[in-house]
Amino acid sequence: MQKIINNPKDFVDEMLEGILAAYPDQLKCIKNDLRCIVRSDEKKPGKVGLSTGGGSGHLPLFLGYVGKGMLDCCAVGNIFASPSANQMLEITREINRGNGVLYIYGNYSGDIINFDMAAEMAKMEDIKVEQVIATDDVASAPKEKQNKRRGVAGLFYIYKIAGAYAEEVASLDEVKRVAEKVCTNVRTMGVGLSPCIIPEVGKPTFEMKEGEMEIGIGIHGEAGMGKDKLKTADEIVDQIMNSILNDLPYKSGDEVSVLINGLGATPREELFVVYRKVAKILKEKDIKVFHPYIGEFAASMEMAGTSITLLRLDKELKELLKKPARTPFFEQAELK
Amino acid sequence: MQKIINNPKDFVDEMLEGILAAYPDQLKCIKNDLRCIVRSDEKKPGKVGLSTGGGSGHLPLFLGYVGKGMLDCCAVGNIFASPSANQMLEITREINRGNGVLYIYGNYSGDIINFDMAAEMAKMEDIKVEQVIATDDVASAPKEKQNKRRGVAGLFYIYKIAGAYAEEVASLDEVKRVAEKVCTNVRTMGVGLSPCIIPEVGKPTFEMKEGEMEIGIGIHGEAGMGKDKLKTADEIVDQIMNSILNDLPYKSGDEVSVLINGLGATPREELFVVYRKVAKILKEKDIKVFHPYIGEFAASMEMAGTSITLLRLDKELKELLKKPARTPFFEQAELK
């Protein structure tokens, strides 16, 4: 495997050591556990704490969004594996300022089991905990089974918008309400063109031949709509956008933010070829784009591919999306 | 080739259409030529214009640094090919506010020929033009032939620092002086683990077997120190840092900014494993790190690999590095 690593067993911890060495003013670990990461800047009194967690290998997801205007902490798992309930509990204690903690994470069974357990333990310590689970991947289950869908790049919008609201010292119920509103209005679908390799496994997680692609792939390489011949960028975007637009559905007159996410090995140039077609389709449908985000936001290590996310905006979501944010992996001045 | 593209011939233009569709408030093309990109925000009276240009395939380099606090314009070539002198001249005219224009670009013969020609033509129109050429890649020629070295990720620091100074309406000579000071104090070396494919060519630019690497590789896949067995991250960093540190040389008591650049397919996680070791080495040498930049800053499409850049700071460079910047690809609030 063509990776710049030391012992595969140490990969996640060494990555975390690198992150903590790079951003000591923004992040720290607690309890001498590298997997328990919290903001190192000052705590705002009364602020609802926002917590996330998940497997490694997706940077900037999940840890990369801990910072001002977004999240307060993150429990970090091994590559593509959930962190433990105890780690989640430790960071919950650390960030609680008395007004409760909101867990925001993706719909994966390992994460759900552990976050549920952490929430139970936190409640026994009189910490109020609520949960919001992202299910934005339209390819992963039909609409009538929406609660079975995976959470993918749409998490970015939940973090951004709930994070902005929490900075305003909104209540736990209120922050949960806007986070759920984002979930209701966000949809994602991806395409994979190559597999990735988990360092400790040492071989690709699945096979993908030259000239093939998989539309609807998950960020761990989960199956989507099945393998197909690699099509042109415009054909791929047409197919993905068709699924996304019809799912909510997004309608003429809507305003959306668009996220074009690179899964790892896909150059930025290709993401703009994708955005070009997305913008054309939205214009034809009379759907207005407020602010596109184009880059790597939720990766699958070195997988080639992209995902497209649409978030339907209303006045409240738009105002919160505009707010500034600053994490080691994402920086945004206030938008106009 | 596993790429999300349409007709390879249209790749660069479609990428540019996507960029202009995404950021109309920040970028526009002039003369109906997609390859002539200038800032679309207001022009500051008397500001020295900063211009760059180069081949496509390196995003965020070059175009991605056009914006507030950095560059004013960019001439865009085909993949790995220089833009034309006429395109450079058009954007020079457009951004000139009477106090001259500084060309900042990498040391490649095609770019030099065309920028020289554009400068000559601009002078005939009474536009003052100066040039600063990046030669930061220590692997590409020995120190005594420094003017033969390639320009790579170090360009980021020249843009950032010269751009911050130009925003303060410094004179052309003054902006050129700090840009040259950055050149004098910046060094880079990279490692490649896989080739990349130019869409119109359709096959890899060079061969790299599983288990091989090339230290000193250029951002177009140019040869470095020759192929070697793929080593561990720590060994690779040791070798690169040894070459960089000895070249200037960087010394105990120095303060540096560090840039860990992903060449395309290398996950962010691996860049932090690299930074971990870089930080250790600098600490051992008693060299202080002011502000690390870790991500993709100068890519080679989907090449796997990384480069390490050190910039030795003095008070002036540090103050300018701290200034805010905002381009579609790089955003920084004022640093403390």
Give the structure's gist in a few sentences.
Two copies of one chain form a homodimer. With 336 residues, chain A is of the alpha/beta class. In chain A, 32% of the residues lie in helices and 24% in strands.
CATH class of the largest domain in chain A: Alpha Beta
Strand content of chain A: 15-25%
Largest interface: A-B, 63 and 63 residues
What is the distance, rounded to the nearest whole angstrom, between the alpha carbons of the first and last residues of chain A? 45 Å
Largest sheet of chain A: 7 strands, mixed
Radius of gyration of chain A, in Å, reads 19 Å
Series of secondary-structure elements of chain A, N-terminal to C-terminal: HEEEEHEHEHHEEEHEHEEEHEE
Give structural attributes.
globular, 336 residues, homodimer, Rossmann fold, Hypothetical Protein Tm841, Chain: A,domain 3, alpha/beta, 8 helices, 15 strands, seven-stranded mixed beta sheet, 2 domains
